[in-house]
Amino acid sequence: MATSHQASGIQAARLDAAGIAENFSDLHPAYDAHEAAVAADRCYFCYDAPCMTACPTSIDIPQFIREIQAGHAESAAKTILEQNILGGMCARVCPTETLCEEACVRETAEGKPVEIGRLQRYATDTLMEKGEHPFKRAASTGKKVAVVGAGPAGLAAAHRLAMLGHDVVVYDAKSKAGGLNEFGIAAYKSTNDFAAREVDWLLQIGGITMDYGKKLGGELSLDGLTSAYDAVFLSIGLAGVNALRAPGEDKDGVRDAVEFIAELRQAEDLTALPVGRNVVVIGGGMTAVDAAVQSKLLGAENVTIAYRRSREDMGASRFEQDLAASKGVKLMFNVMPKAVFGNGAAAEIELEYTQVADGKVAGTGETERLAADQVFKAIGQTLEGQPGALELEGRKIKVSDTGRTSMAGVWAGGDCASGGEDLTVTAVAEGRDAAMDIHSSLMG
């Protein structure tokens, strides 16, 4: 996608280093020990805890909070990590407000839940700061498993398989591990290079070899992998980007939101990252919010999220919507892109108002133009190239409850696989469960 910024309003250093540092500080500062104890005291330790049912990885939430209350943060961390090895990142990025905390009895009774996410972060951070790995690798089984994709599902599967004694090789197309945790999540949610540090800590289990710059359909083939390994787990994510299908989307300044977030996450100096004066983000999910909020934090003057359906239909949670609004982002609903205008570079975007009938979005003919020197597409991603002869369900790889694909010896999980929401915590659960099924299959 064209990214030259001449003759457009896209420029770097809209804010100084101090302004950027303040804007990109931790969204939810960590608890200290006293704050964690006070927060833990609010838990009712429900016998049939609804928070636990609401957690995709089924962490024993009352148990880990009780351990924090008793002053045993490291035991609490182990309780979390047994179910969710990426519990540290999930504590930072999980939409807890629509999962465990929404189900919390305190939320139902008082409108103020136990802050489960921040307690989870306190426990996992305490353990990780010690540098020790709480799990031991079982005796070698002599079995070899290939994991393609080093995102949350792939890392969770690799860790569980290695812990069970299998030798694992993790391939990834990029030059570092982490998937969307490293490349696709807002910088203010994962500060101080946390995603990379969590991967290094996870790899302490042993038995996992990382192999970068290898892509399925490029350097890797399914046939090659299935013949070289006892089992294969695919967690290749969704690398293809949906098109706007609007004239002018090839102009400079129109680009993929995920690409922008990745560039931002890997930038060493955010003051050097160019951003538009008038930014419009097309989409309604977490990626749209992350791109919009970070554009504002970089110094963009006017930032608008334009979504084709109603607020209630938006993929981003109400917390995320309110966060965007609090940072000065304008949210527009029931509008879709009609055309991008400008002489070579984007200058304006025309939006058409929509109505939804029988679930289908249709234009009304009424339009509005907004100044837009930068337009981000956050309208969903697709599977890039069909991986071999695997059966698809919609646009994703069809899998069973335990991640089995239509091909013997091949499992899949995370965003590339059918079922589940596209959340880090769901991907971790799918990777872990597929690993257990692979283990059962290999050990007969």
Give the SSE map.
Elements: H1 17-23, H2 33-40, H3 50-54, H4 61-69, H5 73-83, H6 87-93, H7 100-103, H8 105-110, H9 116-129, E1 144-148, H10 152-163, E2 167-172, H11 180-183, H12 194-202, E3 208-212, H13 222-228, E4 231-234, E5 240-241, E6 254-256, H14 257-266, E7 278-282, H15 286-297, E8 302-306, H16 318-326, E9 330-332, E10 335-341, E11 348-357, E12 360-371, E13 374-377, E14 381-382, E15 392-393, E16 396-397, E17 410-412, H17 424-443
Parallel strand pairs: 1-2, 1-4, 2-3, 4-17, 6-13, 7-8, 7-13, 8-9
Antiparallel strand pairs: 5-14, 10-11, 11-12, 15-16
Structure, described:
The protein has 444 residues and is of the alpha/beta class. 35% of the residues lie in helices and 18% in strands. It has 3 domains: 33-129, Alpha-helical ferredoxin (Fumarate Reductase Iron-sulfur Protein, Chain B, domain 2); 144-239 and 383-443, 3-Layer(bba) Sandwich (FAD/NAD(P)-binding domain); 242-377, FAD/NAD(P)-binding domain, CATH 3.50.50.60. It is built from 17 helices and 17 strands. It has a 5-stranded parallel β-sheet, with helices on both faces. A 5-stranded parallel β-sheet has the order 6-13-7-8-9. A 3-stranded antiparallel β-sheet has the order 10-11-12, with no helix packed on it. Helix 10 runs parallel beside helix 17 and helix 15 (286-297) runs parallel beside helix 16 (318-326). Residues 1-7 have low confidence and may be disordered.
Radius of gyration: 22 Å
CATH superfamily of the largest domain: FAD/NAD(P)-binding domain
- Write down the overall geometry: globular
Quaternary structure: single chain
Biggest β-sheet: strands ordered side by side in the sheet: 3-2-1-4-17
Proportion of helical residues: 25-40%
The biggest beta sheet is recorded as: 5 strands, parallel
Structural class: alpha/beta
CATH topology name of the largest domain: FAD/NAD(P)-binding domain
What is the architecture of the largest domain at the second tier of CATH? 3-Layer(bba) Sandwich
The strand count comes to 17
Catalogue the unreliable spans: 1-7
pLDDT averaged over residues: 94
Q: Name the beta content range.
A: 15-25%
Q: Note the gap between the termini.
A: 49 Å
CATH class value of the largest domain: Alpha Beta
Count, helices: 17
